[in-house]
Structures are given as C-alpha cells and as structure tokens.
Amino acid sequence: MSDALLLPPRLDLPAAAPLAQAFRERLGADIAVDASQVTHLGALCLQVLLSAAITARRRGHALRLIAISDRAAQQLAQMGFTPDTLAEGTP
Amino acid sequence: MSDQNDPMAEIRASFFIECEELLEALQDGLSEMDEGSEDPETINVVFRAVHSIKGGAGAFGLEPLVRFAHRYETVLDEVRSGRLSPDHEGQKLFFQAADHLSDLVRACRDDATVPEDQSQALLDQLNGLLGEQEEDTEVTPEEFEPLGLSLDLPDLDALPAPALTTYTIRFKPEAELYETGNEPQMLLRNLGELGEAQVSCDTSALPSLAELSPETPYVAWTIRLQTAAAEPEIREVFEFVEGLCELTISDASDTEESPPAETLPDAPATIALAGPATDPVEPEEAAAPSPDTPRKSGSGAAAKSVVRVDLERIERLVNLVGELVINQAMLSQSLEQAGLSPHSDAMNGLEEFQRLTRDIQDSVMMIRAQPVKSLFQRMSRIVREASAAVGKEVRLVTEGEATEVDKTVIERLADPLTHMIRNAVDHGLENNEARASSGKPSEGTVRLTAAHRSGRVIIEVSDDGSGIDRPRVLKIATEKGLVPPDVQMTEAEIDNLLFMPGFSTAGKVSNLSGRGVGMDVVRTAIQSLGGRINIFSERGKGTTFSISLPLTLAVLDGMVVRVANETLVLPLNVVVETLSLGPGDVQMLRPGAFVVRVRGGFVPLYDLGVILGYRGPLQDHDRGIVLLIALEDGNRAALVIDGIEDQRQVVIKGLDESFYRAPGIAAATILGDGQIALILDPSDVIASAGSIRPKDRALAERMVEHG
C-alpha cells in the first residue's frame, strides 16, 4: 500500500481537479487519506472524496480516513457526513 | 453614464452604485467593530457587504474583485463565527482590505488596471490572519461553538419546542454557485445556526471517479430544519445564491414526506409562514430578485426605502423650479405695476403662491442634498494612509455625518478636505516623541465635523497638535518675500499667511505634503463653492480649519443693488452692514485710495462703479451708500454703490464658458422684470481692484481695531 494521501489545507474549487487526479492515480489499491491538515472542506472536494470512495469500493478496495482535523470533521458534519460515512461513500 | 440601449450596462451601473452603498456599510461596520462593538449584527453587516459585492462581481465576471472579496469574506466569516477575534493590527488590515476593495470596485467600474500587487500583498496578510487563527483553533478546539447539528438522532422531536417549525429544505447547487465563489458548506452551516438541522446528502447522481468532472456539482442536500425562524429567514441564508441553485423550502410539520417541488425563482413565498416570525420581513424581501442585482440584506429591512434617479432629471427639475421662481417674481412685479390693492384676492393668492414656490424650491434642493457621510468615510481612509506614511498614530473622530449638503458641494469638497486632513496629520500633529514630552496621549486626534449653522454648512477639520508656530510662519513669509520685513501683523493675519500662494511651513518636504500644492489651492476651491475658510489656532493645543459653505449652489440670498444704472446682486451673507455716508466719513489715504470711517475705525473703500468700469471715480462720496463687506480673510471692505433695491432669493444661472471670465463676476441671475443681473463675488472684485496694499490695509484695520 502506498503512503497516505495527504490532503491540502484548503479544499475549495481550485483544489477539486488536482484532488480528483490524485485519487485517480491511486485507484489500484486501498487508499489511505490523511485529512489532518484540512481547514476548509468544500462541497466540490467532498464530491471528489465521495466519488473516490464509491469507485474504490466498486473495485474491491477501501478508502480509509486515517486522520481528520476537527475543522474538517465539523465541516463534514455540516454537509451531512461523518468520517465513517464518507469513507463508505454513502450518506 | 450607461448606454441606454444596453440593459446589461444599466444593471452593471446599478451594481456599482450598490457597491458604493455596500462599501459605506462596510466602513460603518468596521468602524463600529473598531470601537469595540459587541453586537453580532455588526459583523454580519460587514460580512454581508463583502459577500454581496462578491456575488455581484461574480455575476459580471469581475475576476480580481471576486477573488479578493472571497478571501476577505472568508476571514470575516471566521470573525463572524467567533473563531477569530481581530486585534488592533487585524482591524487595521480589515480597513486596508476594505479600502482596497473599494479601489478594486472603482477599477472594475472604470475598466482601469487592477492593482494586482496590492491585492496579492493584502491577500497574503489576510491568509496570515487565517493561518494564525487555524493554529489557534487547532490547539484549543474547546473554543468551538456548539455545532447545533445532529445526525440520526430521532428523539430530537421530544425537545420541548412548541414554537418550532420543521422545514424540509432541498438544495441543489448549480455550477454557477461554485464559480461565483459560494460554498454550500457555509450555507449549510449558516442554516444549521438557525436551529436543529438534519442534513442528508443525495449522492445518487455522483458518477465514478473516472467520469467525474471535478468542478461539476452532482450532489444535493435535503435538510430537515427544526427552527423558530420563519421561512424568509431561511431564504435569507440562500439569498446570495438565488438563481444559482435549486431550492425548495417546505413546511414539513404536517406533510412529513414528499414536499411539493417548487423552485425559488418561479414561486416565491407561496408557503404559509408557520411559526412565529421572529423578524418581520417586508414582502419584497421574500421576492426573488434577479441574480444580477445583489441587494443590501439584513439591515435592508430597517433601511429607508429609496428611489434612484438619474442626476440629469434632478438637474432638470432644479432648473424648472428656478424658472418657476423667476416667473413668480415676474408675476408679482406685474401685479404690483397693475396697481392692485395689497389686500386684494389676487395679491393674497400671490403671497400663497410665493410660499409654495419657496417650499417647492427647498424640497427640490433637499433632493440634491446628501449626507456628508460618504465624504467623511473617504477621509478616514486618508487619515489611515497619511498616518501610516508619516508614522504617527492618528485617530479620526467624525461628527455630524448625517449633515446634508448639496451633492455638487460634496463632490467638490473631496480634494480640499483631503489636503486639509493630510496637512493636519503631517503638519498639525507633532510626532510621537514631541507629544509624549508635552504630556499628550501618543495617539493624535483629528476631528472632522459637519453641522448646519444659520443656513450654512460648517465643516471643521481640527487637530490636537502643536498649533501654528506664528513667529516661524512670519519668518518664512518674510524670507519668501510674501510680506515686507518690517510689517506688524495680528495673529489672524499671520495665520492667514498660510493661504498665500507659494507658502509652505514644512521644514522638509515629506512624502505626504509639501508638494507645492498649498492651502491657497484649498482656499480657492472653497471659495469657488461660495464658501469661506478660517483658521483658529492655539499654540500647544491645536489648530482648527473651519469651512463655511452655502447649502446649495443653485439659489442665493442676494442683495440687489444699483450701480451706474446697472443692477447687480451681491451675496447677502457677505454684507455685514449698510451705511449712508455723511460729510467727512471718507478720507483719502493717498491718491486713489480711500478709507471710510466706521465707528471710529477705518475700512478701505472701493467704488464698485469704477472697478467694474461702469463710470469714472466719484468726485464726492457724500450721501453715497456703502456696503460693508466681510472678506474671507477676516478683513472688511466698503463698497460704494448707488442704491439698494431689494433683498431676495435669486436663482443662480451659471455663465457659459464662452463668456470671457470677468474678474469679480461669479454668475448671473434673472430678475423679476426679466432683466439679467450679474452676481458679484465681492472678494474677487476687491482682489481685482488690488489698489490697497497690505500695508495700507493693515494700517486701516488696526485703526478699526483700536478705534
């Protein structure tokens, strides 16, 4: 398994495309995501994370959140997710 | 102005007008915050102002403006949610950011180049604020606000909340929502603040990663919100994204499932307002505006309702009313000539007519009047910049911001006031050490006040600095040859030397003032507005510049006089006294220069007929009539005229540029008999006469003072 994917602090619109690319490159294996540095989690990047989680599961892999900052967890909750439901890709 | 045929240009123009208002609200809010306001509404107003600017800018594709406003807003949002409390430096940065935002707005409006470097520098600083704050919150997570949000907690309904209503809100962002810098996460958070929210996300439309286009919205949210807030308040959360998302709000208290599908732009507020409306909202608040016209929100409900009118239309109305006044004067004159009894019905009716005309005129002038607040806000920026440039701590205190002045006056006051404020900061206030050694607080104070006083507007700029160093002023003036070396001058006369062209007391040229544009330019600008400027200074205590302006530039209380069979109008406010000359009142100082005795003193005498070239010098001033005129510099002068006809309001008609600009003639007016009369500017008249040398005037004035 490769190293955990460290998410940048600001996950806003400009960050969405690079993030999707980063996930696409890792789809062949289980993905560990480190969200400990995240201070802003926007909805577009949430979509990328969700899509990555769903896609990984379909391919028989898992996406795990190995760390998440309090801010990100809070923002996640505001959008109706917990770190667990995010990793599963289900609301 | 905008191209009439281009609706977009019009909307764009109205956006920029809106921006000015928003920027004003922003400045207000920041000042309140700076003064330590704890009111959460204050930061809300500030936040919304920036947010609205961003929203509108996004609609017009003003990229740099959106980018800057977005980051600014993010930082303000941190403040709003209590996660960041700006210190003094932070506040300063907020002010700078607000200034820069207004620069950007203006640059975008005028299609000028946007100062990108400055944007970047400020953005970095704002980011710095965010970064710091992030560390803070990460080490002290207990400072987080309670989330007010729950997931999968079915017993929530058991809460004792009789007044609560449950709404089902379906919210699906569209691509434009993201492109304009909005963030659903923030909207959801704000929604959560209204009450207990159960948020569920519909991810059914989400494609696999391979097909995912990262900047396309796929997900939608359904929020069950249990709140005491009324529906308009919920809509307010989505105010800035109206038209940028699909939004359905339904009262789910009785219809738990299958909310009726309605989208906001088509069906505004068709749902009954259940629950107590905590904040009554005007009907139009709930109506859906086009996304192109972001509105002032929140405080908007309390704000006065206003109509925007093209200035040109007002100008036309002002002109028409002017004509009406003239016409009324003509009518009254012809009725008088017809020999009607003053008690006849016609004359009574005319009196009523006169009163009405005057009222209409006053009302029309009120339309043009604007509070000086916008001007003062610009000045607070000047103070900030000027104080930073010279390294002094300066506080600007403003008073009377609601004072209303003619719009033209406000526009033309900006430059002189800027100059005076810079002067006050640069020359008026001592540096920090000097202040400390004289026992003053290190922070200097510049006061800017406006008030109505007896039909005029008084604007004062004062500082608590060291006051005017009169011996030094006199020394410099002597060195520069502005006054003869041996002259004895009163304090007021020395102060007035500051207004002489080419005078500058600054020992060295600072990068702020001393650019050769002096107080003489300020005085000229004020005078061209029909105003006067005076200095009051006390050594060690400070200096006050006082500007007195007429309320309007369109009408004037004038004294109608006759000189060599010509009818002339003098502004009434400069006429101090009228005198009838007796034998021996006039004395010759030297050939061609006369003085008149006024209660034991002497005032220089000017013959209006001679100065204007209507006739030759009078041989005998006996039984002549003299107007005693107060000049801007505090001196007095006497004007010889042939007779006084009337005191009345006259409508000022500007003289076209193609007329030769005759010295002493300010404008013209049309009198009741249809005759055109010139309006004089007495100080200009006397300056153009110029026959009295300062030495003579000093002599004559002293004779008055000691007489």
From TrEMBL, chain A:
One of its Pfam families is STAS_2
STAS domain boundaries: 11-91
Cross-referenced PROSITE patterns: STAS (PS50801)
Q: Which domain of life is it from?
A: Bacteria
| Protein name per UniProt | STAS domain-containing protein
Native source species? Pseudooceanicola pacificus
From TrEMBL, chain B:
Question: What ranges does the record give for the region Disordered, renumbered to this chain?
Answer: 273-302
Output the Gene Ontology cellular-component terms: cytoplasm
Which EC class, in a word?
transferase
Q: Which residues form the Histidine kinase domain?
A: 351-553
Question: Per the database record, which ranges form the CheW-like domain?
Answer: 555-691
Q: Which residues carry this modification: Phosphohistidine?
A: 51
Q: Which PROSITE patterns match?
A: CHEW, HIS_KIN, HPT
User: Which reaction(s) does its UniProt entry say it catalyses?
Assistant: ATP + protein L-histidine = ADP + protein N-phospho-L-histidine
Cited Pfam families: CheW (PF01584), H-kinase_dim (PF02895), HATPase_c (PF02518), Hpt (PF01627)
Its EC number is: 2.7.13.3
Q: Which Gene3D superfamilies match?
A: Histidine kinase CheA-like, homodimeric domain (1.10.287.560), Histidine kinase-like ATPase, C-terminal domain (3.30.565.10), HPT domain (1.20.120.160), SH3 Domains (2.30.30.40)
* Residue intervals of the HPt domain: 4-108
Keywords associated with the record: ATP-binding, Chemotaxis, Kinase, Nucleotide-binding, Phosphoprotein, Transferase, Two-component regulatory system
The biological processes this protein is annotated with in GO are:
chemotaxis
Q: Which InterPro entries match?
A: Bact_Chemotaxis_CheA, CheA-like_dim, CheA-like_homodim_sf, CheW-like_dom_sf, CheW-lke_dom, HATPase_C_sf, HATPase_dom, His_kinase_dom
Compositional bias segments (type: Low complexity): 276-290
User: Example GO molecular function term?
Assistant: phosphorelay sensor kinase activity
PANTHER family (alphabetical) = CHEMOTAXIS PROTEIN CHEA, SENSOR HISTIDINE KINASE CHEA
Protein role: Involved in the transmission of sensory signals from the chemoreceptors to the flagellar motors. CheA is autophosphorylated; it can transfer its phosphate group to either CheB or CheY.
The name of this protein is Chemotaxis protein CheA
Protein species of origin: Pseudooceanicola pacificus
Q: What is the lineage of its organism?
A: Bacteria, Pseudomonadati, Pseudomonadota, Alphaproteobacteria, Rhodobacterales
